[in-house]
Amino acid sequence: MSIIVNGRQIDLPETIQNVKGLLSHYNLENRIVVVEVNKDIVMKQNYETTGLSNGDIVEIIHFVGG
Q1: Which InterPro entries match (predicted)?
Q2: Are 20 and 47 in contact (CB under 8 A)?
Q3: Alpha-carbon span 66 to 64, nearest angstrom
Q4: In the prediction, which pLDDT does 62 show?
Q5: CA–CA dist 59, 37 (Å, integer)
């Protein structure tokens, strides 16, 4: 599947089907993040039920302390 993440087109393995899987793929599952899929913010409790489809536009914002 091909999606756009933070402005860059990426090809995902077929095993990644939802937001939770995408965050795990990027090792962000234990971080505080804001996820937007096709301009809709996804609540954390919906990461597992929010599916991803070919052509989706995803924005992931994670916080960095310093």
Answers
A1: Beta-grasp_dom_sf (IPR012675), Mopterin_synth/thiamin_S_b (IPR016155), Thi_S (IPR010035), ThiS/MoaD-like (IPR003749)
A2: yes
A3: 7
A4: 86
A5: 7
> 21: domain CATH number?
3.10.20.30
Task: Render pLDDT for 27-59 as a digit per residue (tens, 0 to 9).
Answer: 998 889 999 999 999 999 999 999 999 999 999
Dihedral over Cα of 59, 34, 39, 18: its sign: positive
The total domain count for the chain is 1
Token pair for 7: 């402005």
CA distance 64 to 20: 20
Instruction: Give whole-number Cα distances, 34 to 31, 43, 48, in Å.
Output: 10, 8, 14
